[in-house]
Amino acid sequence: MNEKRIELTTPLDNNIVKELKTGDMVYISGTIYTARDAAHKRVCELIDSGEEMPFDFSGAIIFYAGPCPAKPGRPIGSVGPTTSGRMDLYSPKLIEKGLRFMIGKGLRSKEVVDAIVNNSGLYFAAIGGAAALMAKCVVSAEVIAFEELGTEAVRRLVVKDMPAIVAIDSRGNDIYKQGRKL
Amino acid sequence: MREIKANQITELVEKLCIEANCVITEDIRTCLGSCMKSESSPLGREILGTLVENADIAANEMSPICQDTGMTVVFVTMGQDLKIEDGYIEDAINEGVRRGYEKGYLRKSVVNDPLERVNTKDNTPAVIHYDIVPGEEFHIIVAPKGFGSENMSQLKMLKPSQGVQGVKDFILKTVEEAGPNPCPPIIVGVGIGGTMEKSAILSKKALLRAVGTHSEMPHLAELEAELLEAVNALGIGPAGLGGETTALGVHILSYPTHIAGLPVSVNIGCHATRHAEGTL
Predict the structure, then answer these.
(1) Strand partners, B252
(2) Of 3.40.630.30, 3.20.130.10, 3.40.50.2000, 3.40.640.10, which CATH number belongs to A6-168?
(3) H or E segment and range at residue A18
(4) Residue A138 forms beta bridges with which residues?
(5) Across the interface, do A79 and B67 touch by the CB < 8 Å criterion?
(6) Chain A residues in contact with B150 (beta carbon < 8 A)
(7) Is the pLDDT of residue B269 over 70?
(8) pLDDT tens digits, residue range A107-160?
(9) Which residues of A are catalytic?
(10) What is the DSSP letter of B37?
């Protein structure tokens, strides 16, 4: 674990992306987008039919999450990562279209790791289940696509100091494989 | 004959849905805290600390511990001499779920049909299990189950000849394959025996037992202790990022079975394994 606090601001700087190593704890500030199963399916259908994207995700960070409803006066309800593996089928296609960064939890397929390496991307693990705490990092939230999907709609979040761990770095090192060897 | 009203059941279920999702049980909170001291991985310790902090924020604010507020599993224990007035028990429970998920700002995660997949928008229907017992009691446990952990659960019909070794191997294989996905440190619920569905229900019930307690049957208590050690030796660790705190407990329930069978179900619960109970 890195001793010095690493703060990242979106859009992520290419040099910093290359320096980040598996196991680094980072604090993310800026704009990220939520999308999970249903939104991924929709986006891939749009790509396949050559239609316009509902939002520009090139260079963006996608957070695999479906939040709880917001209480009055709050930007969002509890929000934490869902299991990333369910997005493996879709991710390489999105990465081909410019997506580079993902936040979720759990293992990724070889195809996703390869796509990350080929496009100098990163996969961050957020702490599964720490959703009340993570909601406190969200400054604002706005549904920007697929509103009818409810919790699965795409939201633009502005976050401040959202904690995450580099799980797969731009060279393809995977913490879920390294961590087990400790 | 004692009588209770259907709307009392609704009110209780409403309250328990919110409580279960926002307030971690004391046994689990205590166990996470003590693992924080014993875990040797620095990152693991930091994650356990974050999980405790998250649980405390959730309880103080009555915010959900996790955004996946689950499919609502309800265990009803009901005396055969009790009468329910003014409504059908199942409707009363589902109305409680509907109200609890709305008032508690809980996520609605249930779809109407596993293939058509249209959200029911009120988290109903619940999955309800009934135990009919002698007397007039009425007891309910609400256990919302997130699918990060539910999806990593497995069931296997072993051959009797595979015996206890086969059971151990299957449990360890299930935990190993689950890896980081079910939000470790997990609770491993195991049901052995009965029929296929009996073992599955037992494995879910096993998750409800307080962490730190042991099976009342000596041979199962011994097996639980051995398996907890073996699971923690897998090195999966908190959040699956390495360490020895992979599970807080291995809980086993068993039932008589057929001469030709050895069903084993492993239901994995996340670090919060939420549940709340109440009596009328």
Answers:
(1) B190
(2) 3.20.130.10
(3) helix A14-19
(4) A159
(5) yes
(6) none
(7) yes
(8) 999 999 999 999 999 999 999 989 999 999 999 999 999 999 999 999 999 999
(9) 40
(10) H
DSSP string for residues in B46-81: HHHHHHHHHHHHHHHHT--SSS---EEEEEEEEETT
Tell me which chain A residues have a C-beta less than 8 angstroms from the C-beta of B237: 179, 182
Instruction: Yes or no: say if B255 and B194 are a contact pair by the CB < 8 Å rule.
Output: yes
With CB atoms and an 8 Å threshold, state whether B181 touches A106. Answer: yes
Backbone angles phi, psi at B186, to 5 degrees: -95, 170
Q: Residue A133: its chain B contacts at CB < 8 A? A: 50, 53-54, 57
Q: Where are the domains of chain A?
A: 6-168
3-state secondary structure of A65: coil
**Tokens of residue A43, six digits:** 């986006």
How many Cβ pairs within 8 Å bridge chains A and B? 148
Q: What pLDDT was estimated at residue A178?
A: 76
DSSP type of residue B242: S
ipTM of this complex: 0.91
pLDDT tens, residue by residue, B233-243: 999 999 999 99
CA nearest A130: which of B148, B272, B45, B108? Answer: B272
Report which residue type is found at B88: Y
**What is the number of other CB atoms lying within 10 angstroms of the CB of residue A43?**
25
Cα–Cα distance, B72 to B102 (Å, whole number): 13
